[in-house]
Queue: 4 jobs
Job 1
Amino acid sequence: MSKGQTLMRGHAFSLLGLTLMCLYALTVSHRLLAAEADQSARNRIVRVVTISGAGLQPGTNDLLEPMMARLDQAASFHPDIASLPEHFSYRAPEPVPGPVTERLASWAHEHACYVVFGLITKKDTRIYNSAILIDRKGQIVAQYNKIHPTEQEIKRGITPGEDVGPPVFRTDFGTIGFQICFDVNWREEWRRLKEQGALIVFWPSAYPAERQLPALALLNEYYVVSSTLRGSAHIYDISGETLASAGEYQQWAAAALPVGKRLFEIDFNAEKAHQIQQKYGSRVQVVWFHDSDWFTLASLDPNLTVEDLIAEYGLTPLDEYLAKCTKAINQARPEAGSKAEPSR
C-alpha cells in the first residue's frame, strides 16, 4: 500500500469516527429534547422499567455486567426511569461518586433516562446500604441511606441511615419516593412518602415482598416499583393490582404509568364515570373493581388531566369522600348532638 493510500485510509477512518460521534451526540440530544417536550404535557404518562436479578449467581461474583445487559434490553421500552435492585452489582462498598455510579451515569445520559439503583456506599469510616438517583443528564441528584437495616446487616458493618425526613425527590415528571428492602415493614414511613406527594415509590430489594407491597400501594394510592435480586420484580398500580412482572421469560418489567390516576368510591360517582367514558372515549381509562365498589380514573391524553375531569363532573376522590363521611359520622353521633344542645 502506497503512502498516499495509507493517508487516505487514515482520513477515511477519522471521518468515520467523527461521523459516529456526531450520530451518537445527535441521538442523545434527540432523546433529551423528547424528554423536555414531554415535560410540557399537562398530563404525564411515565414509562418505567424495573430489573430482576433472578437467575444470576451472587456471592463472590461481580454482577455489574450481567445486570447492565438486562438494563440494555429494557432500554428498548424507551423508559423515563429505570430501577435496579438493592446492592445490584454485588461489589465491595464504594464512595459516591465511584465506578458503579459513573457507569450508571453514562447509561442514564446515553438514554436520557433517570436511574434508581441500590449500592453499598462508604463515607469516611461508615458503610451504608443506599439507593442512588441519577437524572437524565447523568448527574447524581439524590442518595437515600436505608434507615432500617437488618440485624445481620448491622453485624456486617452497615450503619443505619439518619432519619432526615421522608426520602422524596423531585423529577421532571413529579415526586418519587425511596424505600429499601427491610424498610417495607415500617408502614408509617410509607405513609410519610404519600404525605410528601410521592406519585411512585421505588423499592430496591433482595426479595419481592409480594404480600406487603400491593397493600402499601393501595393504602397510599401510589404506584410501587420493586426491583429484586431474587424472585420477580413488579410494578403495582395505585389499586394494588399488578401491572407488570419480571419472570422466567423476561427478567425485566415495564409499564406506562399515568401518574394523575385517582381512586373513587361508586357513591355519587358511578354515573359520572359512565358519562366521562361516553364523552372522552379512548382519551380516558376507567377500571371498575366491582367487588369493592371502587373504580380508578386515568387520563391517557397529554392535555387532559384527571383534575380537569374532577372539576368538570364534580367527582369526589376516595380519600376526600372518606374524610367527608368521617366528619358527617362524627357530627351525627348522639354525644355530638347532646353537646350541641343549649344548656337550660
Job 2
Amino acid sequence: MDVAEVVSALDIAEASLVVAPSLRDAPFKSEKIRVPPEPFTVEAEDGFSVKGFSWRRPEACPSARPVVIINPATSVLCRYYFRFADFLFEHGFDVVTFDYRGIGQSRPATLRGFDAGWIDWGRFDFEAVLHHAERSFPGQPIDVVAHSIGGFLVGLAKSNHLIRRIFTMGAQYAYRGDYARDANLRMLAKWHVFMPLITMVFGYFPGKTLGWLEDTPKGVVRDWVFSRKRFEDTWRGRASARYSDKDALVQQFAAVTAPTLALSISDDEFGTVPAVERLLAYFSGSPRTHLRISPESIDEQAIGHFGFFNSRFERKLWQVPLEWLKSGRLPANCPGVLIKPGGCSDDHASI
C-alpha cells in the first residue's frame, strides 16, 4: 500500500471531519523577504546536524541588540516563519530559526526507522541552537518566540537560563483532554486514530502528502498520541528507558527565569486556556503573563492555531510580541484579556 492509496481510503473519512488547523490552512504563499537569511548548520550534543537560517546585521554588533530564536510548531517548516522573522529584523532584532531533526532542512535521507521525539527536539536541537546563538551573537541578549510545541521545548534545554524574554503562541503539549470541547472528538479521530495508524503503515507520518503537516518522525507521533496530563507520565514502558530521569526534565523547566508572555487565541482548538495554563505551570521560576485574544476583539472572523504568523496580522497582532521583546510590557491598547493562574479571565486588567 502506498501513500496515494491511503489518501484515497481516507477520502470518505475526511469528508466527515472538519480539518483541524494545519498547514493546509496556513499561509504558504511566496512572499519577498527583504533581507535574505543566511543558512547555518550546528551539531547537537548527540552528533545530529541541525540546520536553520539567521538574519544578521553586517555592522559591528552592539551588545544591546537582542537575537531572537524562533521555535516552530510540531512538523512546521522554519520557512513558515520567515515573514515574521523579517518583521523582527526590521524592528532591530537579529533572528535565528531552524528545523527540528526529521523536519525540513534537518531531515535525514529517510524517515523510516528515524525515532526522534519531542524530548530530542528540546534537549538536543533547541539546546544546540541556543549555544549557536550564544557563540554567533556574543554579548547579545537571547529572546525566544515559540509556537505550539516550541514553547514546551524551551523548558527541556539545559541552557534555558540564557534566555532573557519569552513569547509563546498557543504553546502546549497536546494533551487530548485539553482540546477544545466542540472539536474534541474530531481531533481525537484525526490525531489519535488516523495519524498513528498511518504511521504504523509507513514507519513515519506522511503528513505532507496528506496535507496535514510535514512528514513527521514516528517518535514525535508517539509522543503526541500518548501525551498525558503531566507530560512526564507520557514516556512509559519501553519509552521510559529512553528518558529515565524524568524528574530532571521537570526540574529543568524551573531553571527558566525569563519573563514569559503566553498568548492564546479563543478559536485555537489546541491552545485552549487549560492547555496553555497546564504548560505554564511547569515554568515555576518564570514571571508568567497569559494574554487571551479573540478574533472579534480585532475585528476578524478567525485566527486559529496558525493564523497569528500570517503577515495579514502584522498591524493587529505582531505589535504584541514586538513590544514584549523590546520592553517586557504589553503595548498600549493591547487587545484581549489577562488570564489569572487557574484559568480565570480578568476583564478589568490594565493591558
Job 3
Amino acid sequence: MNKIKKQIEHYPNGQIKKEETYKDGKRDGEWTYWYENEQKQWEGTFKDGELDLYTEYFESWEELLKWAGSDDDDNSTGEPDSQNETDSKE
C-alpha cells in the first residue's frame, strides 16, 4: 500500500515556507523551500528516500558568494564579473 503525505509549513506572515512529500514514510517526490519574501530557496526531487535532483536559489549575488566561500567584496554591482578569469595560456 502506497501512502502519500504532503506536508506544508508556513511562515508567521502566512507565506509558504516549505512543501514536502512523503511516500510510505520516506521522502519522495518534489520538495520546495521558499525564503520569507516568496522567492524559492531550493527545490529537489526525492526517490525512495534519496535525493535525486537538487537546485538551490539565492536571494542575492552576495548570498551566492557566501555559499561559495568567496570573500570578494570588490564587486559593488552585485552582478557576476563579465571577465573570464580562467582564460590564460601558458
Job 4
Amino acid sequence: MAPWRLLVVAAFAAVGLSCSAAPVGTGQGGNQLPGTSGPGGDVGSNPSTSGPSGGGGNTAEPGSGPTGAPTGTSGSGGSTAASGGSAGSNGSPPTQATGSPGSSAGSSAGSNASAPPPNDPNTVTIKMTDFTVGPGQEIFMCQDFANPFGGVDAAIGRSESDMTAGSHHLHVFYGEDSPPSMTATQCSNPFEFRSVLHIAGTPTLVTQYPAGMAAKLKGSLGLRLQVHYLNSGSTTLNASVVVKLTKVDPSTVKNWVAEIYFNRTVLSVPVGNGGTVATTCTVPSNYGTIGLIGAGSHMHSRGTHFVANTSTGVSLIDTTQWDAPPPVSYNPPVMLAPGDSISWTCTYDNSTGMTLTFGDSAVKNEMCIFVGRFYSAPDGNDIECQSPSPNGTGAVTSNIPGNGG
C-alpha cells in the first residue's frame, strides 16, 4: 500500500457521461428527511445492531438520516436557499449549490438529484456512534460497518452525508479495518490508506450520478467511516455523522465511476506569504482514454490559492478557498488520454514562524491534493499518484484493501 492517502476534502459535482447525458446534481444543506433501514437491517436506535444477512457489526439505522431535501428550502443554520443543480437538456451542466452554513446552507440537490422516497428498499442508512469534541480539540474518529447490502455487489447511483457542526471532512472508505472497530473510536492512524466511495468536505453533501453511471461496491467489502472534527470554540460539540447510499440496477450501468487521487506526499512551506508547491502526475494506460467528470481541491488553513490544469491546456480548478472549496464539474467531460497529465499548484501564507510540512492537522500541517471522479473504470478501481516530488506517475490501484491498493 502507498503510505500516504488521506484528507480528501473535495465535494464532487459530476456531470453527464456525454453531451447528451443528464448531469449529476450535487447539493448541500436542505431539510431533513427520515432515514430508511437497509435491506435486512434491524429496526432500532442502536447503531451496533446486527448486520444484514448474518453480516456482523453495524448496519443501517432507520429514522435518523438527515439528507439534502429535493427542494431548495432553508436548512439548519441557513437563511437562504442556493439554487440546486438542474438536469439540463443535452447535458448542460448543473447549477452548483455551494451555500455555507448560516448563509445559504439550505441549498438542495438539483432536480435530477431528488431524494429517494421514504422507506426506499434500495437505500441504506449508516450512522456512526455519536461522540463529543472538546473545546480546542482536533480529532479523527473511525468506525467500521459490515456490507450494508447483505454481501451482494451493488451499483451506487447516489450517496449523501450529513455531519453536525465542527466537521472538516468525511471519508467513506472501501473495506473494514482489521480488526474492525464497530463503534466510533479515535483513529489509530489518521494516515490510513483506502479507496473512497464517498467523500465530503461540507456538513451536508449529496452526489447523484445520471442514469447509466454508478460507483461499484463489491459484496465482499464492508465500509469504514472516518471523520475529522475541529472545535475552535469554547464549548463541547456533540457530533453526529450519517451516510445514505442508494443502489441502482447494475444492468443499467454503462460506465463505472472511480476516483482519481493525485497527492503531493512530501512538501515544505517556508515562513512568509507566497510560497508554492507544484506537482504534475501522468495518466496511466490501463483504462485507455478516461473522462473526468468532476474534481476538487484540498489544502489546509494556510492555503490561499489552488490551481489545476491539464497538459492539453484545460483549466480544471482555480479557487482561493481552503475550507469547503467549491465543487467543479465538467460537461462535456474532460477527456484524458494515456500519457496526458494534470498539474496543480498550491500557494500559502505561512505566518506560523516555522516551516510547515505535510501532515494530518489542519492547523499545524499543510497539504496539496487534486482529486476527482472519472469514467470508465470497468473494475471500479481508482487511479492515483502519491508523489513525494514535483513529478509523479499515476497507477491503477485496487479498492479491495490489501489487494494492491
